[in-house]
Every structure is written in structure tokens, then in C-alpha cells.
């Protein structure tokens, strides 16, 4: 009877966890935020303890897992609405290479070694630092690389939020950006996406999305 209970618990929790992750949204494993990772670990731990201990009722395991689901979905929703909350939870990106020069101070701050940098460059088929103009370490640990010449689109506004680190990498500031928007008679909050490439800015507004 004990083995049957374990089997039933395992099967029920297996399908329940699948449903939970479907509700939490689709994300690549390598792009999980800190909150997503913590929730995933806690869910796995609760499920494992429940399966190992036959004295714990199935319902008693589902309750904390459901609470974690509600907490994660709520935090994700708040993060989507507030860039400050998102940066507080996930951190912010770091400029590792700017104008071809390595920012060792930022690397030390992020505990990111030169070996880590070279490894991620090789993964993108970049053999030499001379090929790199800018490199940004994203909040998920992925390295975004911009080669010479800088013909790549640099995102400087995402969903009404200014990408300050990208502006720094481009030797631009918020004053320049806001003046550019003012000249075009566009409000910052109305910008869905804005990128900079070849000394030009391209803007997609919220109104463009509904046309």
C-alpha cells in the first residue's frame, strides 16, 4: 500500500508541476530570472520531500506549491509593470567591453573572469578581442556582443524604459535621448521600442502596434 501511495503521489505531482510551469509562462532555461530559479528549486524541494515522506498528505504538498505559483506569477506581473522592481529583483546588465576596452572594474564587481569572457566570445565564434566594439553581460549571464563596425541595432528604449547601460556604451546620455524624442514630438511613455544604428534612431510607438 505504501508503494502505491508513492506512485500516486509521484504521478499527481508530476502532472501538477507541468501545469504550474505552463501557467508561469514560457521561458528558456538559460533565461530564467533569479525569482524563477528560486521558485523552481523550492517547488522541486517540496515535491521531493512529499514523495519521500509518506506521512505528508498530498494536499499538504500542493498547497505550498500553489502558493509559490501565485507568488511567482504576481511578482512577474509586477515586474512587467515596473522597471525598478524588475531591476531590483533581476539586477541590471553590465558593460564589460566599451569601445574595444575591457572594463576590469565591472568584471571584478560581477565576479566575471577573463576566462569567462573569452569562453563566451568563442561560443559566438569570436577569436580576438579586436573584433569586439561593445560587450554587455545581460542579467541572465548571457554576453551580448557588438562587433566592428557598429552596424548592429542597439536597443536604447524598451517599453518606455531607457536602457542606460546601452546609452553609456554608445557615449550618449538621457539628455540627448530626451531631446531627440522632443524634436520628434514623441513622449517617452509612448515608445514601445527604439534602437540606434549607423548614427540613426528608429522608433516604434505604442500607436504603431495597433495600426
Would you kindly provide a written description of the structure presented here, covering whatever features stand out?
With 211 residues, the chain is an alpha+beta fold. The longest helix has 24 residues, at 58-81. Helix 1 runs antiparallel to helix 2, helix 1 (2-24) packs parallel to helix 3 and helix 2 (34-52) packs antiparallel against helix 3 (58-81). The strands form two sheets. A four-stranded antiparallel β-sheet has the order 2-1-3-4. Strands 6-5-7-8 form a four-stranded antiparallel β-sheet. 52% of the residues lie in helices and 18% in strands. A hairpin with a 5-residue loop joins strand 3 (132-137) and strand 4.
Which structural class do the helices and strands define?
A: alpha+beta
List unreliable stretches of 5+ residues: none
**How many DSSP H or I helices?**
9
Order of neighbouring strands in the sheet with most strands = 2-1-3-4
Radius of gyration: 22 Å
Strand segment tally: 8
| Net shape | elongated
Order of helices and strands: HHHHEEHHEEEEHHEEH
Mean pLDDT: 83
Biggest sheet record: 4 strands, antiparallel
Kindly estimate the percentage of residues that lie in beta strands according to DSSP: 15-25%
Layout of SSEs?
Elements: H1 2-24, H2 34-52, H3 58-81, H4 83-90, E1 94-98, E2 101-102, H5 104-109, H6 114-123, E3 132-137, E4 143-147, E5 154-158, E6 161-162, H7 164-169, H8 174-183, E7 191-197, E8 200-205, H9 206-209
Antiparallel strand pairs: 1-2, 1-3, 3-4, 5-6, 5-7, 7-8
Amino acid at each position: 500500500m505504501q508503494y502505491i501511495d508513492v506512485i500516486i503521489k509521484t504521478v499527481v505531482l508530476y502532472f501538477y508541476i507541468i501545469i504550474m510551469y505552463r501557467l508561469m509562462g514560457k521561458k528558456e532555461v538559460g533565461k530564467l530570472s533569479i525569482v524563477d530559479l528560486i521558485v523552481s528549486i523550492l517547488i522541486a524541494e517540496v515535491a521531493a520531500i512529499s514523495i519521500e515522506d509518506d506521512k505528508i498528505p498530498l494536499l499538504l504538498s500542493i498547497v505550498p506549491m500553489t502558493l509559490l505559483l501565485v507568488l511567482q506569477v504576481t511578482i512577474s506581473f509586477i515586474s512587467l509593470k515596473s522597471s525598478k522592481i524588475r531591476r531590483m529583483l533581476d539586477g541590471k546588465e553590465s558593460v564589460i567591453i566599451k569601445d574595444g576596452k575591457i572594463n576590469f572594474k565591472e568584471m571584478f564587481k560581477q565576479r566575471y573572469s577573463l576566462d569567462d569572457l573569452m569562453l563566451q566570445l568563442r561560443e559566438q565564434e569570436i577569436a580576438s578581442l579586436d573584433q569586439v566594439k561593445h560587450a554587455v553581460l545581460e542579467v541572465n549571464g548571457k554576453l551580448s556582443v557588438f562587433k566592428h563596425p557598429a552596424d548592429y541595432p542597439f536597443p536604447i528604449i524598451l517599453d518606455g524604459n531607457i536602457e542606460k547601460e546601452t546609452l553609456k556604451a554608445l557615449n550618449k546620455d538621457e539628455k540627448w535621448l530626451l531631446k531627440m524624442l522632443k524634436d520628434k514630438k514623441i513622449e517617452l511613455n509612448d515608445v514601445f521600442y527604439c534602437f540606434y544604428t549607423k548614427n540613426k534612431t528608429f522608433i516604434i510607438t505604442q500607436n504603431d502596434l495597433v495600426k
